Amino acid sequence: MADVTIVPLSEENVQLFSQTAAKILPEAWSFETYQKQLSNPDDISFLALCNGEAAGFISVWCVCGEAEINNIGVLEKFRRMGIAKALFDSAYNAAKAEKWYLEVRESNLGAISFYEKLGFERVGMRKNFYTAPTENAVLMALDPENYCLMEKKQ
């Protein structure tokens, strides 16, 4: 069984956080952007470590009671181990938001399925939101009551 640890973004791990994000997402933010997030009071970001090795990350902004997942990702070799759920749980508990939002590539059926299992619902479409390649984004929202209910059922 893997030993997974979720740690907040910090000065000590911002370089590793940035490198991990770049390995997962071609459109990941720069090191400088993640470094700026350290002083952003609206930022909630976590790094997942699996047996001490960087495995994934989540970046969330929480403003006026609404949380927006900027990015979440897990390196391929660590997928299907519950790491994305652990990252989301950490952000969810830290944000205490009244509503959650995210955009996801229309073709990313695995991610859409994951979000739906968390309780997110499809609420709209953003045409040509992504580039390289150009693609629509599915806009999804989560009412925390749905997430809490889902948690109690398990």
Structure characterization notes:
By secondary structure, the protein is an alpha+beta fold. It folds into 2 domains: 1-97, Gcn5-related N-acetyltransferase (GNAT) (Aminopeptidase, 3-Layer(aba) Sandwich); 98-154, Gcn5-related N-acetyltransferase (GNAT) (Aminopeptidase), CATH 3.40.630.30. It has helices spanning 14-24, 31-37, 83-95, 109-118, 144-153; strands at residues 4-8, 43-50, 53-63, 66-74, 99-105, 121-130, 135-142. The chain has a 7-stranded mixed sheet with strand order 1-2-3-4-5-7-6, sandwiched between helices. The chain is globular. The two termini are 20 Å apart. The mean pLDDT is 91.
Condensed summary:
With 154 residues, this protein is of the alpha+beta class. Helices cover 33% and strands 38% of the residues.
Instruction: Return the CATH topology of the largest domain.
Output: Aminopeptidase
Tell me, briefly, the overall form: globular
Mean pLDDT: 91
CATH superfamily of the largest domain: Gcn5-related N-acetyltransferase (GNAT)
The share of residues in helices is 25-40%
CATH architecture designation of the largest domain: 3-Layer(aba) Sandwich
Query: In whole angstroms, how far apart are the ends?
Result: 20 Å
Q: What multimeric state do the chains show?
A: single chain
- Give me the side-by-side strand order of the main sheet: 1-2-3-4-5-7-6
Instruction: Report strand %.
Output: 35-45%
In DSSP terms (H or I, runs of 4 or more residues), the helix count works out at 5
Class of secondary structure makeup: alpha+beta
Whole-number radius of gyration?
15 Å
**Poorly predicted spans:** none
